[in-house]
Write a structure and sequence with these properties.
The N and C termini lie far apart (78 Å). Helix content is 26%, strand content 29%. The protein is elongated. The strands form 2 sheets. A 6-stranded antiparallel β-sheet has the order 7-6-4-3-8-9, with no helix packed on it. Strands 1, 2, 5 and 10 form a 4-stranded mixed β-sheet that branches. The protein has a domain of 109 residues: Immunoglobulins (Immunoglobulin-like, Sandwich). The longest helix has 20 residues. It is of the alpha+beta class and 171 residues long.
Length: 171
């Protein structure tokens, strides 16, 4: 009888609460409230897909990143992410917008042994060529890549926020 009581007590204390609370992620203490936020990225009015969008808060928020990626319509739905929890939206406040493009460059493959066999001048020429190819493939240039220089910004309010950044205006 005592054994049945212990099993029942274990079930009541450990298992029963999960029936009422569910198995999903819970908002951790201190996680800020978030509000809908979308950022649309264009170039001369044409949508830019596959652009990473980061919002850098004017007043830093500990252990949280606020990011999104543009879809085929050039629109990023912003998410606020911490170590074990994420939510769609951004906390209220003013943000600097930073954009990064996901560059894909086809490069000839060489082995480490080949690279190491080259003279320092040949290796430098190879490295310079790769850097040039990456620079030419980039869509986002200049200040929009740097949080200390970007002039693009958005203010998120409790009613939500939308912003459009045309990269041709931020060269």
């Amino acid at each position: 009888m005592k054994r049945i009581f212990v099993i029942f007590l274990f079930f009541a204390v450990c298992c029963l609460p999960s029936l009422f609370t569910g198995c999903g992620q819970r908002k951790p203490p201190g996680f800020p409230p978030v509000y809908p936020c979308t950022i649309t990225v264009t170039k001369d009015g044409t949508a830019l897909p596959n652009i990473s969008v980061m919002l850098i808060p004017e007043n830093p928020i500990d252990n949280v990143s606020i990011t999104g990626g543009t879809d085929q319509n050039g629109t990023a739905t912003i998410r606020t992410v911490s170590s074990y929890y994420s939510a769609s939206g951004a906390p209220e406040g003013k943000y600097v917008i930073v954009l990064l493009d996901n560059v894909s460059v086809d490069l000839p493959e060489i082995g480490d042994d080949v690279y190491e066999s080259w003279s320092p001048q040949r290796r430098q020429a190879w490295d310079d060529d790769i850097e040039k190819r990456i620079r030419e493939a980039r869509i986002i240039h200049g200040s929009l890549r740097n949080p200390l220089q970007s002039q693009a910004s958005v203010t998120v309010t409790s009613s939500g926020s939308e912003a459009t950044i045309d990269i041709t205006e931020h060269r």
